[in-house]
Amino acid sequence: MTDHLAVDGLELSFGTHQVLNRVTFSIAEGERLCLLGPSGCGKTTTLQVIAGFIQAQTGSVTVAGRPIDHLPPEKRNIGIMFQNYALFPHMTIFDNVAFGLRMRRLPAADVEQRVGEALRLVRLAHAAQKSPRQLSGGEQQRIAFARAVAIRPSLLLLDEPFSNLDARLRIEMRDELLHLLRPLKIATLMVTHDQEEAMAIADRVAVMRAGRIEQIGTPQAVYSQPANLFVAHFVGESNVLDGTVLEGSAAGTRLEAPGLGSLNARASGGLRRNDQVTVLVRPERISLLPAGAAGREPGWNYVPATLDEVVFLGHRTECRLLAGARRLTAWQAGGTIEALRLGDPVIAAWRHDDTLVVPQGAT
Amino acid sequence: MTRTGSARWLRSWLLLIAVPLLVFGVFYCAPIANLLRLSFSVAEGQTGANADGLDIYAKLLGDEYFLLIVWRTVKLSLLTTLACAILCYPVSMVVAQSKGWAQTCLFIVLLMPLMTSVTVTTYGWLILLGQAGVVNSALMGLGVIDRPQRLLQNETAIVVGLVQVMSVFMVLSVAAALQSIDSNHVRAARSLGASPWSAFWRIVFPQSLPGLRTGCLLVFSLSMSAYATPGVLGGPRLKFVSFLIYQQAMQLLDWPRAAAMAVLLLIVTTGVWGLASAYGQLKTWRRRQAEAAVPAFAQAGRQGAI
Which residues of chain B are within 8 Å of residue A148 when distances are taken between CB atoms? Predict the structure, then answer.
């Protein structure tokens, strides 16, 4: 697949505040990429530069091999779904969806046909003559989507698409949007601060911080191999430990974690003996064994601990462990720890490969 | 909600609106009722064979001089409203787009005329537009004219003066409407292919119409009852209805006639406004009718839903 959208080295600063710092990424045809990051990280600014609302100081945006930096927004043929939907309140749903087509001076019959297609796509054909105010939040969002895709854009931008919906509807609309996006095969850039939304919708995720892209990759890769502590914290939850490297090789890293003893971790390049590192273990990767359990398999870390607190959350049980002075969190599915009681000694076990090492300083 | 609960709710609600109702009744309705009553009473010493209450109205409506002044008041008020709307809309856009300090400064400049007495501001125009005034001197200095022009005591001067006094009301209501428009609407329109002008005309302007309407209502009704500005700038020849009322009440002491004129002014003001909004309603209704030709797919969808 070829790059459909190419964003190259965008830079933008207001005074001393650098909003965008060499933002570079590309989206293949039909691919969905998500910019993920906390508020103020520059993700929405990036979207607005691509849409043409803001000019970057340096860098370029190319769509299908054609630079679009010099084009005003109306010449870019980019469909945008706004965070607050931005439906025109003084127009009917039909006129809202027809707006972009009428701006393109399509004959009335074509306008009607394509508005019909777009509205049927989002299953709201019956609402054509209603006003946006008469629709629910989820319906308004579907209309915003229909309006953005009715112009058959070369690129679709989704700005925090679910932030205006309540928690329940959010998941429903997430599935709905994915369902709508898949068959359209349109290059899509989504912006969100919610890692679950990002991972659910996107083919690839780009994690941003302070105007920079920290890591870009498939949701699986970003989750299981975070490039640094920031990404690890932002995408999912982690147990964070300090450690000192004892031995680093291509086969793996052996390190000493104060209070936990020696651990084996996934191989990480460029580590030398006595390097200070941060060790990350995802809570769902930690299994709990009764203290007396026999059998040690190769490729696993075993750490003795005490069960300090158990929080039942329905779909999982959160176990807080004390290993020496260290606190660990382990997530257990269902009722696997029913036999254990608070204060019981247990053994926390996780794979060497699930132990991630990030050099200290590389926050 | 229980019955006692709703009764309590109703009682507290009534208590809440009692105060405004009382104030409204005492300070607004009572004077108007009194005015009406007064207009139907017959002035002392004016007893005639057919001097019943309606006689004053009949005479006024048959009085060409009075009707001429009513016509002038309506015409110049409408002109003032139109000029205000056209001149103040761009100003409102600047006000709505400005932020922080700049906006505060703009508001201070706009509100200045309200803080000074209308008479004082109007006398300012005398200095500007007089025979030896700033405008005449400047135009003569530039060689545009070779002798002073009469810029005062004509209808243009009245409109100019009224526009200046009234513009703040127009700007405030239009700017409020513009400011409440979501800036994403313009961005959405642009992304869908609308040029800046098209986005303004199709998205911003229609949404600012309620504010424009309010501004027009304010300017028109205030102009209809203007007294000082037309008095000073129009001179004795070009009277407004309010000047006639003052004359009747204060100089001729004919209170019933003055009251009848005031009632007629009220009726004309609301009448003109009513006609204008009825015309607007009619246009919207016609457009709705035209739009009601529902596209086929929507109808199919509707039937499908049933």
Answer: 191
Domain containing residue A268: 239-359
- Same domain? For A82 and A35 the reply is yes
Per residue in A22-54, pLDDT tens? 999 999 999 999 999 999 899 999 999 999 999
Give the minimum alpha-carbon distance from A11 to chain B in angstroms, rounded to a whole number: 22
**C-alpha to C-alpha distance for B103 and B113, rounded to whole angstroms:** 17
- pLDDT(A247) > 90: no
Domain containing residue A44: CATH number: 3.40.50.300
Tens of pLDDT along B112-163? 878 888 888 888 888 888 888 888 888 888 888 888 888 888 899 999 999 9
A292 touches chain B (CB under 8 A): no
Q: What is the reported pLDDT for B3? A: 60
Q: β-strand A58-63 against A78-81: which pairing, if any? A: unpaired
B chain contacts of residue A158, beta-carbon cutoff 8 Å: none
Domain boundary, last residue among A178, A212, A234: A234
Listed residues A218, A234, A250: the one ending a domain: A234
Contact A74 B191 (CB under 8 A): yes
Chain B residue numbers touching A77 (CB-CB < 8 A)? 193
List pLDDT tens digits, range B175-219.
999 999 999 999 999 999 999 999 999 999 999 999 999 999 999
Residue A306 neighbours by CB distance under 10 Å: 15
Binary contact (A116, B295; C-beta < 8 A): yes
Q: Kindly tell me the burial class for residue A28, based on how many C-beta atoms sit within 10 Å of its own C-beta (0-12, 13-18, 19 or more).
A: middle
Per-chain mean pLDDT for chain B: 86
A215 and A289 in a single domain? The answer is no
Contact B190 A116 (CB under 8 A): no
Nearest CA to A279 out of A306, A310, A246, A309 is that of A246
Q: Are residues A279 and A313 in the same domain?
A: yes
